[in-house]
Design goal:
By secondary structure, the chain is mainly α. The chain has a domain of 72 residues. It has 4 helices and no strands. Helix 1 packs antiparallel against helix 2. The termini are far apart. It holds the Pfam family DUF2368.
Length: 149
């Protein structure tokens, strides 16, 4: 009788373990999906910001170029064209960021860094662990209790 009971308990225990493993897997998959959706939304916001900024900067660049060109012709000073060069580089960068392939080149470079220069990605004092968080929490709680006294 005891053997039958222990066998039943073992089966129940195994089913419980499988259930817990399945739930943990589902929770992890949901967290990964949620983090990916958050990353995608943040990137979309960054691209949208670049496109919006480009509208304003493009207008500024156009008006500035027009004004400098008119001034250079009117005053016969070709040196007034000089500011157009750096402003043009900024415009080109913004256009590349908003509509070009900059994001793909950045991703490619990031992948290269992860593969060949992984040591640059190490955090100071190493990765965060449960122990390090608990150590700091205990230090703060003991420090806080000392202040109260």
């Amino acid at each position: 009788m005891g053997f039958i009971l222990s066998k039943s308990m073992d089966q129940s225990f195994k089913k419980q373990q499988e259930f817990m493993l399945h739930n943990a897997r589902l929770q992890l998959e949901r967290q990964i999906l949620m983090q990916n959706q958050m990353r995608e939304r943040q990137m979309a916001m960054q691209i949208a910001w670049s496109r919006e900024f480009l509208k304003y900067y493009g207008t500024f660049f156009s008006l500035t170029t027009l004004g400098l060109t008119m001034g250079a012709i009117k005053k016969r000073k070709p040196s007034l064209f000089v500011p157009i060069v750096p402003l043009g580089f900024i415009l080109a960068y913004q256009m590349d960021m908003a509509y070009g392939s900059l994001i793909y080149r950045m991703r490619s470079e990031a992948e290269s860094i992860i593969v060949s220069e992984h040591n640059r990605l190490d955090l100071p004092h190493g990765a965060i662990s449960f122990e390090s968080i608990e150590k700091e929490r205990r230090a703060k709680s003991s420090h806080g209790s000392l202040l109260e006294k």
